[in-house]
Amino acid sequence: MLAWNRAAADLLGFDRLSEADRNILVFMFIEPDARRLFGPAWEDEARRMIALFRATHDLFATDPSFVQLVERLRSSSAEFASWWIAHDIRGGASGEKVLAHPQRGNQRYQYATFQANDDPSLKLSIYTPI
């Protein structure tokens, strides 16, 4: 993650992560707060994230940073290791999510993710409260 606003920091806590851990997949599969944040939808969301990552991964499969990321996730998360070998690929990056804020409880969001045309490794995600 390169940047986020105060609302994202409040909800997701990215500012509390070390720079090496500021990756949405690391957050989802290694940070315990992710399971609390996504609640009962964690597994579906985690599988969706892997399938979206697969589509980008193949463009950079031999890049050392991608290799290191996949190995870190495989060794740190049994779920990632198991679901990674399924080779699911999904497109589309918009919809609704319910996230559990630690003080305000469940909150519904619409989200959309946009891919940079000139750099397939960059994406912008926008969450709008419903």
For the terminal residues, how far apart are their CA atoms?
Answer: 24 Å
Strand order of the largest sheet: 1-2-3
What is the global morphology? Answer: globular
Report strand %. 15-25%
Radius of gyration over C-alpha positions, nearest whole angstrom: 14 Å
User: What is the ordering of alpha helices and beta strands?
Assistant: HHHHHHEEE
- Poorly predicted ranges: none
Helical segment count: 6
What is the β-strand count? Answer: 3
Q: How is the biggest beta sheet arranged?
A: 3 strands, antiparallel
What portion of residues is helical? Answer: 40-55%
Structural class: alpha+beta
Average predicted confidence as pLDDT: 88
Describe the structure in your own words.
With 130 residues, the chain is of the alpha+beta class. It has a domain at 6-91. 44% of the residues lie in helices and 20% in strands. The chain has helices spanning 6-12, 24-30, 32-38, 42-57, 64-76, 78-84; strands spanning 94-101, 105-115, 123-129. The chain has a 3-stranded antiparallel β-sheet. Helix 5 (64-76) crosses helix 6 (78-84). The radius of gyration is 14 Å and the shape is globular. The mean pLDDT is 88.
List the helices and strands and how they pair.
Elements: H1 6-12, H2 24-30, H3 32-38, H4 42-57, H5 64-76, H6 78-84, E1 94-101, E2 105-115, E3 123-129
Antiparallel strand pairs: 1-2, 2-3
Task: Please name the defining characteristics of this protein.
130 residues, alpha+beta, 3-stranded antiparallel sheet, 44% helix, globular
Q: In a few lines, what is going on in this structure?
A:
With 130 residues, the protein is of the alpha+beta class. It has helices spanning 6-12, 24-30, 32-38, 42-57, 64-76, 78-84, and strands at residues 94-101, 105-115, 123-129.
